[in-house]
Amino acid sequence: MTEEFKIIDKKDIALLKFPATDVLDDVEEIKTRISDINRALSLGNLEHSKIKIFFEDDESKKIVDTTVWGVTDKNVMLKQGVMIPIHRIYKLF
């Protein structure tokens, strides 16, 4: 799966544009994504562990290795206010 994803630096995420459509269409995958986001939040807050987030902007699929600091209804929050829309995330691990 990683061969089609390009590694990106966390600070560059703020420059990306994200379409309104969801990258996932399977209900079970969407449920798994939410549970993975909550697990990543716990790991970030308790152990400051980094995780890989696989996501897609309006141009291509990307991957970032980072710590999740917070989660809202619509976004995953990283350090320095950087956010990735939940609906653009494929998976986290």
Please provide a written account of the structure.
- With 93 residues, this protein is of the alpha+beta class.
- The chain has one helix at residues 27-47; strands spanning 6-7, 51-56, 61-66, 70-71, 75-77, 83-85, 89-92.
- A hairpin with a 5-residue loop joins strand 5 (75-77) and strand 6 (83-85).
- The chain is globular, with a radius of gyration of 12 Å.
Strand content: 25-35%
Mean of residue pLDDT?
A: 94
Tell me the Rg in angstroms: 12 Å
Number of strand segments: 7
Low-pLDDT runs: none
**First-residue to last-residue Cα separation:** 12 Å
Helix/strand structural class: alpha+beta
Largest sheet: number of strands, sense, barrel closure: 4 strands, mixed
Q: What count of helical segments does DSSP give?
A: 1
Sheet with the most strands: spatial strand order:
1-3-2-7
In short:
With 93 residues, the protein is α+β, with helices and mostly antiparallel strands. The protein has one helix at residues 27-47, and strands at residues 6-7, 51-56, 61-66, 70-71, 75-77, 83-85, 89-92. β5 (75-77) and β6 (83-85) form a beta hairpin.
